[in-house]
Design goal:
Elements: E1 6-11, H1 19-28, E2 37-42, H2 56-59, H3 70-78, E3 82-88, H4 96-104, E4 118-125, H5 132-145, E5 149-150, E6 160-163, H6 174-195
Parallel strand pairs: 1-2, 1-3, 3-4, 4-5, 4-6
The structure holds flavin mononucleotide (FMN).
Length: 198
């Protein structure tokens, strides 16, 4: 039965159907059966340019002069109960595409629209020790700066992490996929606990 709750799953990779999408889908697969809807947003399909620091949104939330998909993506995220934010590891951090979205989210900072959302981070790197932790903690920093409720997958520290280089590689990383599933289960648990009985 539907709960009426929704999670927006942001894929920060410029490859729409790559490893990051695979781990996001592993996490999302735990939400549907719990009656929680998931909507995917790909930064391969949505153009979000970097913040120019004009500070217009400091005076009026959401007032951003950049004409691209940034406002629409952030509005979609702001309308969700929960957020899953995922990135490939690029040079030990998140992609430039995701960092641009993170910086542009300053437009929602003054009206605190992200406050109290349940949020989880995921990353995939080509190397086993390729900087996945740095990338998930960068996502965690974004979430806690907005006063979101940042969750952790059981047995992990900071987020779900996986290994895979070529597209599809991550499907053979059973530990990585399991960490994503644990994050999805934790997301469902926290969302339901916050909603209360019924
Ligand atoms: C520009 C660039 C930088 C990368 N830097 C790293 C890195 O620092 N550590 C790592 O483990 N993998 C690195 N990778 C590999 C990607 O993280 C890996 O291929 C990942 O699976 C891509 O996810 P996707 O299929 O969702 O795009 C890099 C790839 C690119 C293109």
């Amino acid at each position: 039965m539907g709960t009426g709750m929704k999670v927006v799953a942001v894929n920060g990779s410029p490859r729409k159907k790559g490893n990051t999408q695979d781990i996001l889908e592993a996490a999302a697969g735990e939400l549907g059966p719990q009656g929680i809807e998931v909507e995917f947003v790909s930064l391969a399909e949505n153009v979000v340019r970097p913040c120019t620091g004009c500070e217009r949104c400091y005076k009026k939330a959401w007032d951003c002069p950049i004409e691209d998909d940034g406002v629409a993506v952030l509005r979609k995220m702001a309308s969700a109960n929960g957020l899953l934010v995922a990135s490939p590891v690029y040079f030990g951090g998140v992609t430039a595409q995701l960092k641009a979205l993170i910086d542009r989210s300053v437009m929602a900072y003054t009206d605190t629209e992200f406050k109290d959302k349940v949020a989880g981070g995921l990353s995939v790197g080509g190397g086993k020790h390729g900087g996945q932790e740095l990338a998930v903690w960068q996502i965690a920093t974004f979430c806690v700066t907005h006063d979101m409720i940042y969750i952790n997958p059981e047995g992990g520290v900071g987020g779900a992490m996986a290994t895979g280089n070529d597209m599809g590689d991550v499907r053979s990383d059973s530990d990585g996929l399991e960490s994503a599933k644990r994050l999805g289960r934790r997301m469902a648990e926290v969302l339901k606990a916050r909603r209360g009985p019924g």
